Amino acid sequence: xxxxxxxxxxxxxxxxxxxxxxxxxxxxxxxxxxxxxxxxxxxxxxxxxxxxxxxxxxxxxxxxxxxxxxxxxxxxxxxxxxxxxxxxxxxxxxxxxxxxxxxxxxxxxxxxxxxxxxxxxxxxxxxxxxxxxxxxxxxxxxxxxxxxxxxxxxxxxxxxxxxxxxxxxxxxxxxxxxxxxxxxxxxxxxxxxxxxxxxxxxxxxxxxxxxxxxxxxxxxxxxxxxxxxxxxxxxxxxxxxxxxxxxxxxxxxxxxxxxxxxxxxxxxxxxxxxxxxxxxxxxxxxxxxxxxxxxxxxxxxxxxxxxxxxxxxxxxxxxxxxxxxxxxxxxxxxxxxxxxxxxxxxxxxxxxxxxxxxx
Length: 359
Known about the structure:
The chain is an alpha+beta fold. It is 23% helix and 34% strand.
């Protein structure tokens, strides 16, 4: 399998620049996810990689080949789309082997590749059927099988699970991971679903406004976001934010003083972030660990089974907390609950640039 390099990749539609200089290296056999909100440029990046959109500026390398100006058929890539793009008048076997037939591959080899891919995807018993006889999940397997039989240098996935229901999406995530490992393939996968990104990727590329905000492992992206945008986009429920200012002994915020060391100058405006999972009962933290304690008013609880999401209010602002089910009785509507923030679970961002500050 081949690695990928994007060098100062730019794309404009008329006067609108949608990609603003993307530099990215994807190592051979890596599963990389392009993640970001709608309109951030992730699908455009993938389509340029596939050769479906021309490059306005920059270069695309697959392995040791500059493929920037090559036609899609000459790049040795396979792409799986959000819609399955199956031919309704063909059988599943014919759909899977269509690209090989177009290359005039011998019939016996086409059959062997199709059968092997079908066995891998557990659809061998469906080869004689037509697409309308299959469920959405089965059709997606066929689309993936059509990519596998080509034995490409690079697999591209453009939100392939977005049309499936929640249960089937979870099952297909597992199948795709298993497939990636068995093929030892280089894969670039586009999604706006952070859960897909966190559970599947070796590395995540968070995009925003046609630029890369951060590249890192799922753990790095979640626990040490480089910017407020990344911090707010990753995590469900989203990170809580509080406006603050650097004081003499720490931070002054709307919910109270915070014992949080920073090298910023006194008076600098900052944004303090903490995840809903990182609210603690005061007796869970030592005096040193606790950065502050806040009296929250409980508004309501959303039960998720073993855990619940609690909507809280303090200083006129709304916050979210996540707690185990056995603690949810403490959050009766209107109850005042003291909760603490831990020093090592706080995130600090510049109020002007939005970039992470203070480590």
